[in-house]
UniProtKB/TrEMBL annotation:
Cofactor note: Binds 2 divalent metal cations per subunit. Has a high-affinity and a low affinity metal-binding site. The true nature of the physiological cofactor is under debate. The enzyme is active with cobalt, zinc, manganese or divalent iron ions.
Record-stated family: Belongs to the peptidase M24A family.
InterPro entries membership: Creatinase/aminopeptidase-like (IPR036005), Met_Aminopeptidase_Type2 (IPR050247), Pept_M24 (IPR000994), Pept_M24_MAP (IPR001714), Pept_M24A_MAP2 (IPR002468), Pept_M24A_MAP2_BS (IPR018349), WH-like_DNA-bd_sf (IPR036388), WH_DNA-bd_sf (IPR036390)
Function: Cotranslationally removes the N-terminal methionine from nascent proteins. The N-terminal methionine is often cleaved when the second residue in the primary sequence is small and uncharged (Met-Ala-, Cys, Gly, Pro, Ser, Thr, or Val).
Any Pfam family the entry gives: Peptidase_M24
Enzyme nomenclature, EC number: 3.4.11.18
Cofactor(s) essential for the protein: Co(2+); Zn(2+); Mn(2+); Fe(2+)
Top EC category: hydrolase
PANTHER family listed in its UniProt record: METHIONINE AMINOPEPTIDASE 2 (PTHR45777:SF2)
Catalyzed reactions: Release of N-terminal amino acids, preferentially methionine, from peptides and arylamides
Full protein name: Methionine aminopeptidase
NCBIfam families: met_pdase_II
Amino acid sequence: MQMSQMLEPVLNDFRKAAEAHRQMRAYARQTLQPGVKLWDWVCDLEERGRMMLGTSGINHSESGLAFPTGVSINNCAAHYTPNPNDQRVLQEGDVVKVDIGTHVNGHIVDSAFTVSFSPMYDAVVRASFEGTWAGIKAAGPDARLVEIGNVIDETISSFEVEIGGKIHKVRPIENLCGHGLGTYMVHCDVSIPIVKNGCDPSIKLEEGKTYAIETFASTGKGKVHDVSDCSHYKMIPGSEARIDQIRNQKAKELLRFIIRNFKTLAWCRRWLDIGGEKQHALALKYLVDNEYVEAYPPLCDREGSIVTQHEHSIYLKPTGKEILSYGPDETVP
């Protein structure tokens, strides 16, 4: 059997996940407006995605959402989604990164875009958009990661934005990056830098693999740090083999729930709540403290800054690339 024939079922999985992603993205662009309660909006969007992919409830083990929908706001770059009892309502001045992941049989499509309701932020939104497309154009079989990072940095750093009468230089976030996409693993293989000289110059992209070209532009320091109230989590690979070592019965039951519904995909406290695991805080803390589950807290630049994000998933063919997540909702610069 030829390699192309072997890969076709996998590519069909990616394309099915990509079509659901495009429809979710289109709905998100239509409905995300100031005044929406983020919990309600995200739950509605995610349920639509599950329906498109034939997912039963929150069980994403065969197909469904690859990670919680990110709605990181203003200086928060990533990993924010509403936790139970979060009452946050979107405001007119907010800049929102909408990060959506879908998968079929563990084959993940990861793509993000930024929504702003004020033309004041157009330049910083454009910076991450053009940075990602510059990275996509530079990507291909045997492309050096350092060269992709260099062109992304040059593109993003060429922007500046006036906010409140003050000129802000736009810069890429040095400790965030693109990444490889693996089966049931949203981050694997390599990290694709978005700053100059951000990695070993010998590392290259490889034919037959899937990558997320992901950039972040900021009016702040260009570096993010963890903040509290974590919502994103993921089981550490291999934890299922250690489940019998758990002495806390509630923690053991929660890990079984996680394995059954998510495998090594990312999930959030909201999904535990929706799935009936409402009293999960202590059991979850046990799993994190004992390294069965890894926490991914929100990542933020300095207070008062604005961060934007843009991302597409690409598959590298022998003669080029397929931009899996591209759709009619955007125009290539």
